[in-house]
Amino acid sequence: MNWTLALPEIVLSVSGLAILVFGVLQRRDPTQVCSLLTLAAFVLTGVLVLLAPDGIGYNSVFVGDDFARYMKILSLAGAALSLILSMDYNRREGIGRFEFPVLLLFSTVGTMVMASSENLMTLYIGLELQSLAIYILCAFDRDRLGSAEAGLKYFVLGSLASGLLLYGVSLVFGFAGTMEYRGLQAALSASAEIPTGLVIGIVFIIVGLAFKVSAVPFHMWTPDVYQGAPPPVTSFMAGAPKIAAFALLLRVMAGPFGTASHQWQLLIELISMASMLFGALAAIPQTSIKRLMAYSSIGHMGYALMGLAAATPAGMRGTLIYLAVYLFMNAGTFAVIVAMRRRGRPVERIADLAGLGRTDPGLALAMAIFMFSMIGVPPLSGFFGKLLVFSAALQAGLPVLVVVGIVSSVIGAYYYLRVVKVMYFDVATAAFDRPAASVSLVSAGMGLVTGLFILLLGPVSSAAQAAAAVLFR
Amino acid sequence: MITQIVFWFFAVVLIGSAVMVVSARNPVHSVLFLILAFFNAAGLFLIAGAEFLAMILVIAYVGAVAVLFLFVVMMLDVNFSQLREGLQRYFPVGAAVGLVLFVELALSASAWRIAPNVRDLPHARVPGASSNTEALGELIYTHYVFLFQACGLVLLVAMIGAIVLTLRDRPSAKRQDVAVQHARVPADTLQMMTLGLGESTTGNGGFRRPIGKSAEKPVSRPALVIENSPDREG
Fold first, then answer.
1. Is residue B174 in some structural domain?
2. Most CB contacts within 10 A, which of A38, A362, A429, B39?
3. Contact criterion met (CB < 8 Å) for A125 and B165
């Protein structure tokens, strides 16, 4: 057995335990030190992920391949960015405790386990580890009613989704007698017709995972939780866990259930269309930037699902690139949201951004870049994401999906442009508090990545190509 | 024959106590019926030959979960009759939803085919192991050790979460501080007075407690006492 396969996960977990013990034993407030140590652990794990060998291990529950590597690097990057945002935010809000980075770390371990799942049991346990830590992080600002509500709401609905997912897993197990992806694939390709029970099982698994990526009609929790949770947590929630849930969706649907693609393709198509349209329409009346981002994330998940609906290697590649693009845009936008503080208190209305173009031109420029990128204006990163999924869907013969995607992009442009208009053309109100260097760094860095993505397109696209090829072995 | 009788006995008592769990007026009775239901379910598992599962059910569910429920019910003053108030109002809607779900379940079950060789599977012996416990142990601790450890992480996260969300550092809480205890000298608390025969302390100004500089400082901040103690000794 090749135990070094899971070396990144093991190292990250052990450093999490060490940081926890260090934090408990420290007499003075160890939050900043623990956050920095966690960041170092993320970097170390990232290096180990790149060096980790390929193969299946641990009695066929764990796999290391290009796909897992791509997803793990993305989720580590998302977690590290959120952690940097949280360091300043938590200190200013007085909720800085050293458990925050530790929980974020364990949640990231969960996302990495999910990305490497080769068995439905691994899928479930990774998902639970990741979600449980996020439920706690949502309620981390426990003295604020909104935060506690967000935690409870996400917990109750998330448990329900986990239950549905488990029910689906049990049905699939009942059909095939195995939970290993390879075994399932063999069983499916051996049987002439697909039994009803299995189809119901697949549907339940899709429902459970669609809940985690907040696709319509399983999105109800998203706006409230996004608004209530502390913004660094929201930026994490919108990044790493969604990427991990997408990793599972892609891996499970393309791998074991790949031969049954005609059974689930329509379902994914419908979910994708509904998410895109709902994300575009429901965001229009929003006044809170956090709720706006929640609906925007629902819409973006719809676009990313479009690549999966195509069920081709090109589609999967499109989805993978879209996820990378979305992760960086999203982290940058949330850096701007974290920077929205006036007289020591966080503000979150879109109207509060008025005149940012004059009071803080750098921040406004970054925000404008993110908003234009989310619309999909070339040459920003969002354009390439959309281009790739649209072209994959067209090649796969799904013109309706593409039309819906373009229509909802146009509708969505309205509310993204409104943010830009408020920043540059509305009468300036009082300036924001000076943001911390870490927050400015994240917003500027993500602005650069988003703006100059054309330079990164080559490496990202070849990594995504290699990752997508693994799924169709 | 005897197995059949025992099965029916356990099954009837199980369903009866399950009904009582939801219908009993007193929540404490509900929890007690829940324990009874768990015991009967354990009996059913024993008949099916799953002795390990039966024991786990008794240990984990009766021993921990049900007792925890009992504590919650008795210690938290939850008004259960108030929780039940909406029952009559929501019953028709709930029943309608339940009916729809049941019909759907029946429809999908009618299209259900069970593989012909499945019937014997539950009674098949585990290869290479003498008992269920041994087989499970080998699976959990050897084959699926990765998942086992990951489950451990899940529990750890749950524990951290419970502490993070509930533990509050109250300044008024009384804690033992060994350093302060060791730094105490008799002069902090004891006052020696020489009294002549027949005199009372009142004549000497009475007891002045607490004595020393700590009189002006609140007692709950022991750090100050340590700082002050040397000059009192000198």
1. no
2. A38
3. no
**This prediction's pTM:** 0.86
CA–CA separation, B40 and A240 (whole Å): 44
How high is the mean pLDDT of chain B? 80
User: In total, how many domains does chain B have?
Assistant: 2
Out of A16-30, A229-243, A294-308, B84-98, pick the least confident: B84-98
In a domain, B219, yes or no: no
Choose among B112, B145, B146: nearest Cβ to A197: B112
Q: Does the structure show a pLDDT above 50 at A431? A: yes
Question: Does A311 have pLDDT greater than 70?
Answer: yes
Domain boundaries, chain A: 261-473
Whole-number average pLDDT of chain A:
92
Residues A34, A101: contact at Cβ < 8 Å? yes
Quickly tell me which residue has 């009142």 as its tokens: B202
Closest CA to A457 of A382, A396, A395, A389: A382
B108, B147, B164 ranked by CB distance to A99: nearest:
B164
Chain centroid to CA A10: how far? 22
Would the CB atoms of B154 and A113 count as touching at under 8 Å? Answer: no
The CATH number assigned to the domain holding B70 equals 1.20.120.1200
State residue B230's pLDDT score: 45
Both tokens of A374, joined, read: 């989310």
Owning domain of residue B144 = 132-159
* Residue carrying the six token digits 């719809």: A302
pLDDT, tens digit, for every residue of A326-377?
Answer: 999 999 999 999 999 988 888 989 999 998 989 999 999 999 999 999 999 9
* B44 backbone dihedrals φ, ψ, rounded to 5°: -60, -40
Across the interface, whether the CB atoms of A129 and B161 are under 8 A apart is answered no
Q: Which residues face A288 on adjacent strands? A: A349
Position B113 in a domain: no
Burial readout B22-50 (b: 16 or more C-beta within 10 A, e: otherwise): eebeebeebbbbbbbbbbbbbbbbbeeeb
Other Cβ atoms within 10 Å of A451 Cβ, number: 19
What ipTM was assigned to the predicted interfaces of this complex?
A: 0.92
Q: Does B216 touch chain A (CB under 8 A)?
A: no
Last residue of a domain, one of B28, B56, B75: B75
pLDDT at B124: 67
Confidence bin at A105 (pLDDT 50/70/90) = very high
Single out the residue in B75, B97, B118 at which a domain terminates. B75
